[in-house]
Amino acid sequence: MTDHYAALGLGSDASLADIKKAFRQKASFYHPDKNPAPDAAARFRAVQQAYEVLSDPEQRQAYDDNRRRNLLDDPLETAQAIWKGYFQQVLADIQPPR
Predict the structure, then answer these.
(1) In which domain of life is the source organism classified (predicted)?
(2) Assessment of whether the complete model's pTM goes beyond 0.85
(3) Which of 17, 21, 42, 87 has the smallest C-beta neighbourhood within 10 Å, fewest atoms?
(4) Residue 11 backbone zone (phi > 0: left; psi -120 to 50: alpha; other: beta)
(5) Mean of the per-residue pLDDT values for the chain?
(6) Helix 40-55 / helix 57-73 crossing angle, nearest 10 deg
C-alpha cells in the first residue's frame, strides 16, 4: 500500500492548503528536469499521484477509509509498510542528489 501522506511528508490531519504547499515543494524538488537523482522521476510520479488522491475530497475519504480498514485488518503488516515508506522518504530527503 502506498502512503500518500508520506510521499508529501504530511500527517493524515493535513489541510488542503498544506497538501497543495507540500505538493508544490516536493514536485519542484523531484522534477526530473531539476533533479538528476536516478529515482527522481519515480518520486515525482509518487508525489503527483499523492496529490491527485489527497486533493480530491471523495478520493481522500476513500483512501483514508481504506487506510483505517487495513490498519484494523492487519495492523502489524500495515504499520511496517507505513514506517518503511516513512523512513525511506526521510532517508531520501536527507541524502543530497548526485
Answers:
(1) Bacteria
(2) no
(3) 17
(4) beta
(5) 86
(6) 100
